[in-house]
Amino acid sequence: MSPTATASLVLHPAFTVAPVNRRTFGSFVEHMGRCVYTGIFEPGHPSADEDGFRTDVLDLVRELGVTAVRYPGGNFVSGYRWEDGVGPVEQRPRRLDLAWHSVETNRFGLDEFMRWAARADVEPVLAVNLGTRGVQEAVDLLEYTTVAGGTALSELRRSHGAEQPYPVRAWCLGNEMDGPWQTGHKTAHEYGRLAAETARAMRMVDPGLTLVACGSSNRSMPTFGAWEATVLEHAYELVDQISAHAYYQQVGDDLGSHLAAALDMDAFVDAVVATADGVRAVGRHAKRITIAFDEWNVWYQDRFDEQGPPTEWVEAPRLIEDTYDVADAVVVGNLLISLLRHSDRVASACQAQLVNVIGMIRSEPGGPAWRQTIFHPFAQAAALARGEVLRVQVRSPTYETALHGDAPVVDAVATHDAEAGELVVFAVSRSTTEPVTLDVDLRAFGDVRLTAATVLADDDVRAVNTEREPDRVVPRPHDGAVLDGGRLALRMPPVSWNVVRVAVPRS
Ligand code: AHR
Q1: Whose CA is nearest to atom 1 of ligand 1?
Q2: What was the pLDDT predicted at 4?
């Protein structure tokens, strides 16, 4: 690539993909490691409120702009008895959590999560256990959670202090049921039937629920594609969404491939859409299935595989507490770009996970909480992506990667909020050596004005945020953004996440 490399794109208010789905900015709280215990919940912490919720973490969750939180797993849910986590705390059982070889104290459960979600101002999304349990337990949980009163389980909830039903509209029918590591792992036929019958029964309680069937655990599962097709053949008319999970990591010193991870996410979404639409055509179905990308992030899984799960049965062990650097933040920003550009078919997404466990937020027991590098692109996208996602075709030089073939050096998406009169461009540079300029033609919008621009980059792409230096990596004012005559020239430093806000005429 030459030092003066240029990429370009043309934006037009009439060329749109779909409205921004607010559920794109979801996250995930699992009973795993320290996500719940000493993450969001730590009675005795100096910042804890009367429920034991860490208010320093709550403040960061609100700042992050997370819109929805999936709970309680993850692999954990496939062995979970929800009844263990309600009612008087001193009567709750201690259990073995087989998924993470941990002891679950059940001090935090459904009622605590619902109170926490209300305080965090996030929509609660629940997963039911279809590993070791089935239709009856799912319907029982639905009754406990959403029926106003007058039945055994709704009255049980009220006796636990929750007079009103909880506002849970979206439900995941199990978790990663294709994975042999999953407690109660199933074949596609077994799971497809169970998901269909669970969905049918849940809809008898409330036909308007949003129900998510499990897709593949990742795109490299040997059954990927066939799994989705079989599950949807059983459950197409009974569910709304199929899930997708993807975790990325840098392998060795191959930064170029890592930075291009969003190409894999693009291909993943396209493949699931094609599979779902294939089932639609064969089954003569009218509606379209959308995707719940309900686990995604950078995760250094190799490190976990080396370390392995705990060998002792312990409470809230330190598990997969990855520390993220600048490059990881750029990848996370790029994954958000991918999710946004698929807003016509990706109806919801959950970054995994919220705190400590591959978390955007880190917290220490009895100590502080801080923002990881990946916190920042998420917070900016959640705050600023509003209105319609615009159709973006980036013309960019490419570079060769070992994992994803030729990759464009620049990737971008843009959103347009006509009512507020704001257009926002989110762009990454995957160049590892030279700056690259992105030219954006905005003339179709009329009179436009640059209002703000930030960049997250660093001379050291390995720079991280730590307890001692929590704000080492933050978005800073951009000195490379110029808007003139309806054309934006954005000079992006290597390995960078760039956000440009432009005032446009309201309509
Ligand atoms: O997020 C960590 C784990 O990754 C989840 O429990 C599981 O669903 C996935 O494999």
Answers
A1: 352
A2: 65
CATH class of the domain at 21-384:
alpha beta
Nearest CA to ligand 1 atom 3: 74
Q: Are 429 and 493 in contact (CB under 8 A)?
A: yes
Look at residue 2 in the predicted model and tell me its pLDDT: 58
Catalytic option among 176, 228, 388, 422: 176
Atom of ligand 1 nearest to the CA of 73: 6
Indicate which residue's Cα is closest to atom 4 of ligand 1: 74
Per-residue pLDDT at 5: 84
In the structure encoding, which two tokens stand for residue 337, read together?
A: 């770009």
Tally of helices (H runs) and strands (E runs) in the chain:
11, 26
123 is catalytic: no
Residue 3 has pLDDT above 60, yes or no: no
Range list of H helices, 260-325: 261-282, 301-307
pLDDT score for 309: 76
* Ligand 1 atom index nearest CA of 76: 6
**Which of helix, strand or coil describes residue 200?**
helix
Distance 387 CA to ligand 1 centre (A): 31
**Mind listing the pLDDT tens digit for each residue in 106-120?**
999 999 999 999 999
Query: Residue ranges of the alpha helices (H) in 219-347?
Result: 226-235, 255-259, 261-282, 301-307, 326-341
For residue 1, pLDDT beyond 70: no
Structure confidence at residue 308 as a pLDDT band (50, 70, 90): confident
SS3 assignment, position 248 = strand
Superfamily of domain 6-13+389-503: Golgi alpha-mannosidase II (2.60.40.1180)
- Distance between CA atoms of residues 17 and 67, nearest Å: 21
CA distance 184 to 178: 10
Predicted TM-score (pTM) of this structure: 0.98
- For residue 74, report the distance from its CA to the centre of ligand 1, in Å: 5
Substitution site in 28, 30, 219, 360 for ligand 1 pocket (most atoms within 8 Å of beta carbon): 30
SS3 annotation, 374-416 = CHHHHHHHHHHCCCEEECCCCECCEEEECCCEEEECEEEEEEE
Q: Whose CA is nearest to atom 7 of ligand 1?
A: 74
* Mean pLDDT, rounded, for 433-448: 98
Beta carbon of 178 within 6 Å of any ligand 1 atom? no
Cα 500 to ligand 1 centre (Å): 34
Per domain, the residue ranges of the chain are 6-13+389-503, 21-384
- Per the annotation, the verdict on 176 as an active-site residue is yes
- Check if 154 has its Cβ closer than 6 Å to any atom of ligand 1: no
Q: What is the pLDDT of residues 220-273, one digit of tens each?
A: 999 999 999 999 999 999 999 999 999 999 999 999 999 999 999 999 999 999
